[in-house]
Predict the structure of Helicase ATP-binding domain-containing protein.
Amino acid sequence: MNERLESVLTFFEKTLPSYYNSKEIRNSQVQMAVNIAGILSSNSDYRSILIDAPVGTGKTFAVLVPSIYNVKKEQSKKIISERVIYATASLNLQAQLRNEELSILQKLGCLNSFLIAKGQTHYICPKRLQQISISPMKKRHLEDFCNNALEGERTEFERKYYPLDDKTWSKINLESQSKCKHCDLEWACPTREHRNKFNDMRHQVVVTNHNQLIQSVLNVLDYRAPIIDFNRAGIVIIDEAHEFEDACLSQIAQQVTFNSIIKWAKETMYEYKIKSAVRVLKNSTDRIRRKLDTSSGRHKLGLTEKEALKEIQKILEEYQSRQLAYQAKKLFKNIEDYDEIERVQVVIKNALNEVEYTSWINIDENKNDSIVVVTKKFKSEINKIINELSRKNKLIFTSGTLAVKGSFDHLYHSWKGKPPSSTTSILTTVFNYSEQAIVYLPKHIPDSPGLTSPMFKQYCDAIGDEIYELIKITNGRTLILATSHKQMEMLYNYLQPKLSLLNIKFLKQGQKSVELLSEDFKQDETSVLIGTGSFFTGLSVKGKSLISVILCKLPFPPKDDPFLDLLAGGDDYNDRMEYVDIPRMLIKLLQAGGRLIRSIKDFGCFTILDPRVHDKKKGYATQVIENLKQQKYRITTERDEVKKFIELRMNMKKYPSYPKYKRDKLSIPESLQRDEYQGIVVNLSSSQDKFSVQVPSNGNSVFTPKQLAFYREIRLKLGMNDKLLKTIKDPFGMLKHLYQLAIKKEFPIDVLDTFPYESEEQRQNFQRKIKDNNSPSKVVSYILSPKEIKELEKNWAKPKTGIK
Ligand code: SF4
C-alpha cells in the first residue's frame, strides 16, 4: 500500500481512537484526510482542493494529519524545509487548535513544534502602555506582564491576572507593526520577540488568520517582506474559507476615518475648512444611521458626500500647490504624520474616481465612520492572491459551509474562476439531525422596527420575553446571536435581572476576550452567552453546556450593499440573488445553527426569531425552509413541542452512534493507488540512440542534495514546478538550465555565483564551460520509483532502448 495512505489510515483507525480510548471512527473524517493526502502526493497533478466538511467531520485533524506527514517527509529528505500554514478567520478556532488538535498531535509524537501567529492587535505594545494613563495598579500589572510575558498576547495576560475590557485593550495593543521599526523598546519587547518567530522554520505548523496571510501575499506582490513567509511553506490551509473574500476586502480596501481626516487637517493650516466639510459627511452618516436596522453597514456615496469629499480634495490640492508640503514636512515631529496626510489625499482622490474604484461610507457601530475605496478589479485581485499562494504551495480551502446547494459556483463567481489545478469534495454529515435537533420558528414575533426607531426597545423586550421562556425550558445552556451591538445591549439589560433570579450566569461579548468568554461558557454548564459576529463561527461547545441557539433575526445581507454590488459585478437581479445574496444568507444561517450539534451525543433547539420566515410570498423564505429541511432538521412553530423534545432528550440514557466505519467504503484517490517517487536518482548513460542503466551502488546521486534543493528553489521562485526535468543530465546541465532560465526571466539572483558547487575546481570548470557555451555530457538522470528501479535491476546487463 502507498506509504502515505497507510500512515494516514493508521492514524485514524488506530492512533486517534486509542488516544480517546474509543472505538469510534468517522467515515467522513477518514475520507477527508485521504482526499487531502491524495492532493499532497507527488503523483497528484492537482495543486488545490476545496472541501465542504460539515460540522462533526473532525476536519481539523483530517486536514492536519496528512499535511504534517508531508512536512515530515520533506524534512527527512533534508532537501528543502517545508511547513504548514493554517489560516483561520476566528480567534475561537485558533484557540481550539492550540488547546486541542495541535496539543494532541504533539502528545502523540506526530508534531514537534507549532506557533500561533495572531494579528497584531492581539499583542501588547509596551510603548503605548508607557504613554497612557490608567489606574496605577493596572499599569503595574501590565508592566510586570511586559517584563515576563512569553508572547505578549492578551489572553496570556488575562490568564495570569484578570480580564481586560476591549476599551482598555485598544489603548495598549500594537496598532501598526511599522511602528516597531524605530522603537527604542524593541529589544525588551515580548511582542516583538514573539512576532519575530513567525518565520522560524523550526515550527512545523504556523496558525495565523486570513488577514495576516492575505497581507503577506499583497506585500510580496508589492516587493515587500511578508509577515508570514508563505513562500517557504509548502502547504497552505485556509479554514473557514467561506470568509476568504471578505478578508481580501479588508486587506485590499483603502480606508480613512472621518476622525483621522480631522486629526490630520490640524497639520495643514486648513483645519476650519476641512472640519466643516467633514461635518457635512458626519451629518450625512447620522441620517443614514437612523434608517439602518443594524448598527453598522456600508452605504454608497451620495451627491452630498461626494461634494464634501471634493471640497476636502480641493483644499488638500491647494495645500500642495502652494508648495507648503516641503515646509510642512519639516514641521512634523514624525515623518509618518506627513505620509498619513498624503495617504488621506490618495484615498479621497480614488473615492472620487468612479471609473476605476467603488467607494462607500462605512457606518461603524462605535461611530468611527470612514470612507472605503476598493478597486473595481477586486475579483481579479482575489484571483491574483490565490494564484500567488498556489505558486509554491498546495492549497487547501475548507469550511463547514463552503458549498451551497451542492455547488462551489458562488465562490468561483467571486474569485473570478477556479483556483489553479483544483478539485473539490463535498462530505456527508455524520449527524442525524432529525433525531438530534429541532428548529423552532415562532409565529408571534413582531417585525423589527429598525435600530433607531423609538419602538426598538419594545421590540427587544418582546423577543426578550420569548428568549426568557426558552431559557427556562433549557435551564440556561443557551447562545443568543444578536444582529447588532445595540440589540445585544438591550437584550442583556432586559434579561440580566431575570436570569440572575434564576441563578443563571449571563455572559456578554466584550466583557473579556472571546477566548476566555468561550471557556467560561463551556465550564459553567447552565450559563447563557449573548454575542454577535464572532460567535456565529468558531465557537464549539459539546455536551449539555449548549443545547439552545437563538438567532434574533434572519442574517440577510443588507440591501444595496456596495461591496456585494462589486462582487455581483453587473449581474442581473436573478444572478445576484443566485451567486451573492442567497448563498451569503444561507451560509450565515447554517453557521448559526451549526453551533448547536457538535457531536453525535449533542441535541438541542435552534430558534429563529424572525416572522419573515413564514412569509411565503418572499422567495427567500421558501429557500430558508427548504435548506433546513435538506439538513433533515425537524421544524416546529410551537414552543410546547420544543419543551417536550428537550425534556425527552435530557432524560435519554442511550445515545445514537456514528455510522459504522468501513475501510472498503473509502474512495481512494488515483494518486494514492501506486507508489510515489522516493527521490532516488539513478544514472542513465547514453551512447548514440541506446541507453544502458547504472543504479549507483553507493546510493549517491549525480546531484548533491544541496544542488537539488537549489534547483527546486530557483524553479519555484520563477513560478515553475519543481520537478527535475528528464533532459537535465548532470550538475552542469542543471546549472546551464537555471542560468538560461534566469536570463530569460530576468531573475535578480546570480545563479552562476550562488550555485552549490562541490569544489572550487568544479566552479571554475562549469563557469568556463557556460561562458564558452560548451554543452556536454552523455549522462542523463531520472527520478524513479522503487518499483521502476526493481524492474531496471532485473534487466541490469541488457542494453535498453528508448528509456527516457
Ligand atoms: S517594538 Fe513594537 S510592540 Fe514593542 S514596544 Fe515597540 S512599537 Fe510596541
